[in-house]
Amino acid sequence: MTEGSKSENGKKKLSTRSIAMIIMVVILVVAVIAVAVALIVVSEFNVSRKEEGGFVYSLSHGQATILEYTGEDVNVVIPDELGGRPVVAVAEKAFYKNGEISSITIESDADNFTIGAQAFSDMDSLVSVVLPDGLKTIPSRAFSGCDSLTEVTMGNGVESIEEYAFSECPTLANIYISTTSGGKGSGDSDYNTSYNMTMPSSLKTIGNFAFYRSITASSATTRKILFNAALTTIGQSAFDGCNRIAFIDYAAADTAVSLTEIGNNAFYGCTSLRFVKNTTGGASGVFFLTKALDDKVLESIGGGAFDGCAYSSTASSNRAVLNIYEDTESIGDYAFRNVKSIKTVNFYASNPDLGEGAFYGASNLTAVNYYEENGTNEDGSTKYTVSSTTSLSPELTSIPSLLFYGSGLNGFKLGSTVTSIGDGALSALTVSKDSKGEELTTIKINNENFAIYKLAPYYTKETTSSGYYTESNDHYLLMSADMTVIYSYIGAFSDNATSVYNESVNQSRAGQFRFLQNLDINITSIRGYAFAETDFSYIWLPEKLTSFGANMFNGKSLESDDMLYITFEGKTADYYNTLLSGDNLSTEFLSGIEADGENVVIRLSGSQSSDVLDSFNSYFTLTGHYTTINI
After folding, report:
1. E strands within 283-395?
2. What distance in Å separates the CA atoms of residue 152 and residue 127, rounded to the nearest whole number?
3. How far is Cα of residue 461 from the mean position of the Cα atoms in its chain?
4. H/E run at residue 537
5. Are 147 and 171 contacting, i.e. CB atoms less than 8 angstroms apart?
6. 26-77, pLDDT tens digit by residue?
7. Is residue 577 within 8 Å of 613, Cβ to Cβ?
8. Residue 604, class by beta-carbon neighbours within 10 Å (0-12 exposed, 13-18 middle, 19+ buried)?
9. What is the CA 258 to chain-centroid distance, rounded?
10. Coil, strand or helix: which one is 473?
11. Rounded to 5 degrees, what angle do the CA atoms 588, 561, 532 make?
């Protein structure tokens, strides 16, 4: 190779190295620029904390989230922008336990504004809140424990009010829907006279405990709530303890609704709730429960759902009729316990799972009917005919315990398919009379497994000034067909009655229930709750009875000098020892009695030994309120 060639090759190698070095420098410069830009972006969009006007906030993707408020204003307005960036959220616990602020208005127009859990909870001085129209969810415990919260304005776009969102807000009295989202706002006095709490039109779910123990203050009296058709679920204890709610309506009777589930204890203890539509200020809605049932969408009514809704001033003509169709699959335990505003329950070819005590204490419930399918109407709808033989589904074989305890039933038809009756299912019933004073048949037996036994009549004072018991009254026992088992006493024998006709009031046989003595039937067993809610002071239990259930005198209240004397007529120690062994005599026999002192006296016949007396005195659970003696 010549010198010239070597020189040329050297130049080529030098040129290649230069190019490579230049490329590396360019790459390095680009990398530095990229890092700088990234740092700028991070600085701009992901600053952990910034502050403006007392609002501590963060930025993410060019949007601001309120983290905390450090200002001193008591009427706080959260602006639409901070640092030139749109405000789209309030973080979890952002205003938690701020005890100074009395009002909050959120001005954001973001489409998907969000609020974190407990964002405004436990704010003792907070009175009013205005939420943005873009809010879709009111989260868990958002306003829980705000003792002074009175009014909330929200948009129609809210789809979910989550668990405990407004729990323990006792003064909550008004929920308005903003005018900017199609609502009436707080300024329409005519509308707000009819309804003071309007739920958003998009609302689908009211979560568990959402309004738990709210709406209770005297300032929130007679609250009128309006649900909208989109609502599908009312969660467990959603309005539990809201004792100032008087009416809950849907806006129109001709609009189809979507409610499928009412959770356990959803309206427990809503003592002011009427089971009628609101007519205040010309309101033309319809009671939400009957509407959901009539629309055949409500699938389940949870246990205790309306337990304790005992408002009793509704006129009899306005009391509710509950129509249960096949779509309703279950009515839970004690769902309507002590509800006074129901007069009729109709089952339309339906056999829902009925819980224990579902209609316990529904004292104005007088009619229960079963309707059979009977062809179709001209419009294609199913035609129904009331059954003449049963008040419950013919598919039902067992009536749950305490189902109609203490209700006002008359004309109840016990169908042929029933083979068992739970304790107390048909207890604490009385003999009803019509407007002419004619006796109505409380229970009609269309069943070979059960029977009604008519007891000897009893007598009450004919007038308040009469000195004698002369007015005759009938009473009965619901029994097994073989007359061995007593399920319940149906009647109203009391301390103001006697078994002796034309007996002077000043004689001493008043209140002595002796009707089980010397019966011409072989009774052996009395089931639980059989003499519940009775108002006599003496009862004799013949020796032929060898089995006694629990809560025999449930609901009996004994104060100061009131007494209940229970006489067992067995003569031998063996009889009593047998009673106290096994399950022959329930230890809960006396349970359900309310007593101040030793107001119950157990009297044993046949001069029993001290061992037998001691055994009785330690046997029952009503400890300290009864004593056992020989007679």
Report:
1. 286-287, 300-301, 320-324, 330-331, 342-348, 353-354, 367-376, 382-386
2. 9
3. 42
4. none
5. yes
6. 566 555 555 454 444 444 444 568 999 999 999 999 999 999 999 999 999 9
7. no
8. buried
9. 19
10. strand
11. 35
